[in-house]
Specification:
This protein is of the alpha/beta class. The protein is built from 13 helices and 7 strands. The longest helix is centred in the C-terminal third of the chain and has 40 residues.
Length: 288
């Protein structure tokens, strides 16, 4: 049993322990489905109608094998913590009651348990999972380290998942629809430009690239940009230095204007014929 619990996180671990210690007799009960409401911050937002229909068919044949988890509300009734798919499937079947484990817990613990249950069942798409981690930090003031301890994930994993929320909407849509997975999305984070991220995401989908191929592509694009940026920075510094040296040498304003393919114009300003002659003498030297 202890082996199975690894990675459950403190929230779900506490839930299982409390249920076992009480023997389950005072926790497990049949509850009217209409008395259960959905929590406002449930991590799971998308439900596949076909899979929900399959679950309903299974429940109709075998019953609800695993109870949902709820907590009592002060205003009456219960709030769903875990098992929304089972609850929805029972509603579609017209069931009036559903087996439930009643758990006394605070908002933070309820949110953590709901997230853990969904993550372990792999019910969340990467965007839903990232948003759930963000909500734990934003709503309850938790650090990434504290979130990682509660959900049984590494701090770096939580940090990288939350970063996915900063990706362009076009990529978020691909994540939500399952066309990209979390590994693809994390690879795209190496690319700084949003438009290039979207273009790279499109290429991943079109060519059906795996995560390793996506990482290689993103790394190549990132390195290319870094080299280009270094070249541009060098040219800028070099041009500025030459302009300053020519200005000091000729005693007038000098300006470089770059064009395509390394071409350009060198402008030397003068205010009159006398200054022009002076500049020409400096450039050409005294021929006498």
């Amino acid at each position: 049993m202890s082996k199975q619990r690894r990675g459950l996180g403190k929230g779900l671990q506490a839930l299982i322990q409390a249920t076992e210690e009480s023997g389950g007799s005072d926790r497990l009960k049949e509850i009217d489905i209409d008395e259960i409401t959905i929590a406002p911050h449930q991590p799971r937002q998308m439900f596949d109608p076909d899979k929900l229909a399959e679950l309903a068919s299974s429940i109709k044949e075998h019953g609800v094998i695993q109870p949902v988890v709820v907590r009592p509300l002060q205003s009456g009734g219960y709030e769903l913590i875990a098992g929304e798919r089972r609850w929805r499937a029972c509603k579609t079947l017209g069931y009036r009651k559903i087996p439930a484990v009643v758990k006394e817990c605070r908002d933070l613990e309820a949110s953590a348990v709901s997230l853990i249950e969904n993550v372990q069942r792999e019910d969340l798409n990467p965007l839903e999972e990232a948003l759930a981690y963000h909500q734990l930090m934003d709503n309850y003031g938790l650090t990434q380290e504290e979130v990682s301890g509660r959900v049984g994930k590494s701090r770096s994993f939580v940090a990288n998942m939350v970063r996915l929320l900063g990706l362009p909407n076009e990529i978020k849509d691909l994540l939500a629809s399952g066309q990209l997975n979390a590994g693809h999305a994390r690879a795209l984070l190496a690319i700084q430009d949003g438009k290039k991220q979207v273009a790279a995401a499109g290429k991943i989908v079109r060519k059906n690239l795996n995560v390793r191929q996506a990482e290689s592509m993103a790394r190549a694009l990132s390195q290319k940009k870094d080299k280009q940026k270094k070249r541009e920075t060098f040219r800028e510094q070099d041009r500025t230095q030459v302009e300053a040296e020519l200005k000091n040498r000729l005693g007038t304003r000098v300006k470089f204007k770059e064009k395509a393919a390394g071409k350009g114009i060198l402008e030397i300003h003068f205010k009159g014929e006398q200054e022009l002659q002076r500049i020409l003498e400096l450039l050409l030297g005294d021929k006498e």
